[in-house]
Amino acid sequence: MTNDDRYLLFYKPYNVLSQFTDKEAAETERETLKDYIPVPSVYPVGRLDRDSEGLLLLTNNGRLQHRLSDRQFQHPRTYWVQVERVPDAAAMETLRQGVTIQDYRTRPAKVRLLEKEPDLPPRNPPVRFRLSVPTAWLEMTLTEGRNRQVRRMTAAVGFPTLRLVRVAIARLCLTGLAPGEWRDLTAAELKGLLQLCRLSVSKLM
After folding, report:
1. pLDDT range class, residue 129, cuts 50, 70, 90
2. Percent of the chain whose pLDDT exceeds 90
3. Active-site residue 4, yes or no?
4. What span, in angstroms and rounded, lies between the C-alpha atoms of 161 and 165?
5. What digits encode the pLDDT tens for the residues 156-168?
6. Which pLDDT band holds residue 29 (cuts at 50, 70, 90)?
7. For the chain, where are the E strands, in sequence order?
8. Under a CB-based contact definition with an 8 Å cutoff, are residues 189 and 172 in contact?
């Protein structure tokens, strides 16, 4: 690890791309990470879809980025997921055990029904609800990050996702950040991240 290494947490707002450049910029103006983060040469570890919100980890350290992106290390990511209707016990158990989506089966996940709506900033624009259909919030912790996985999982058991917010990556969380804000990891957070990835400081150099 060098003095030039950077490790950032960012609260990605809805409708922002998880990248610094937009290949379709000539056709439409869409916000990207460069509209919020003025730090050069850092890149997101994994991604959040444009229509998802929440925690992104960014770094310029390629070794750590590779280790966190490799599925074999199974680092946990936790999401608060608003779904249409209230999932029954059978749907919840299916989500926990694994869902078959196209040509793969998801890993077992931790899934629980939240007793009340979590304390989150309003989404802009707001979620479109059907007044006659109730909604529920789930907390889902996954150890893999396939393309649109959470949305595909809830849809597969009959409860489409309306809003998706990543609230934690391992022990890193959104606490203290508002949408669009970023900060550097603390020394304690970085130490915990290295332990999770089974890396020492010397292996990052």
Report:
1. confident
2. 67
3. no
4. 11
5. 999 999 999 999 9
6. confident
7. 7-12, 43-44, 53-59, 77-84, 100-101, 104-105, 110-113, 135-142, 161-169, 172-173, 182-184
8. yes
Residues of the chain with CATH 3.30.70.580: 7-71+170-204
Q: What type of residue is 66?
A: H
| Number of other residues whose CB lies within 10 A of the CB of residue 124 | 9
Q: Give domain 76-168's CATH architecture.
A: 2-Layer Sandwich (3.30)
Among residues 49, 51, 88, 119, the one annotated as catalytic is 49
Strands 43-44 and 135-142: unpaired
Do you know the residue count of the chain?
205
Distance of CA 85 to CAs 46, 90, 161, 179, Å?
Answer: 29, 14, 10, 27
Residues of the chain with CATH 3.30.70.1560: 76-168
Please state which of the four CATH numbers 3.40.47.10, 2.30.42.10, 3.40.630.30, 3.30.70.580 is assigned to the domain occupying 7-71+170-204: 3.30.70.580
